[in-house]
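Hi, here's the filled form for the chain we discussed.

Project: internal
Contact: R.S.
Residues: 145
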Amino acid sequence: MQFQVPQFVEVEDKIFGPLTAVQFIYLVGGGGFLVALWFVMPHWLAIVIGGPIALLGAALAFYKINDRPLINALESGFQYLFRTKLYIWEKKQSKTVLPDEITLPGQTPAEDPAKYAPSATSNKIKDLAWSLDIKESMYSDKKQR
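And the returned structure, exactly as it came back:
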């Protein structure tokens, strides 16, 4: 048995004449709000406030940004404005106090422990550089790795 596969899945069905259900709801909601404004407020104020509301209702119904409805762009904008943001690339300057830097009042600061560490002699450094060079030359051929 063969089934027909829908071809235009991203196109919404036109239910109310040339309008989809969502477009119809936006237009009816905006129109209802305008009628309520007309009866509640003075007419001149209802016209001033109703103009942007009518434009918003029409824009929500018909205007698309990058083939996506305007409501998606508005939702993304509000999420960007009100959610917390994490800036990973910004280094925060904070002064951290290490435990060795803390001294109590009346206590003398401790001596530098690095002066008691053995110093690296030039012979030890040369030996270390030589052994690193030998290991590097041993593994310079990629087949040997």
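Let me know if anything looks off before we file it.
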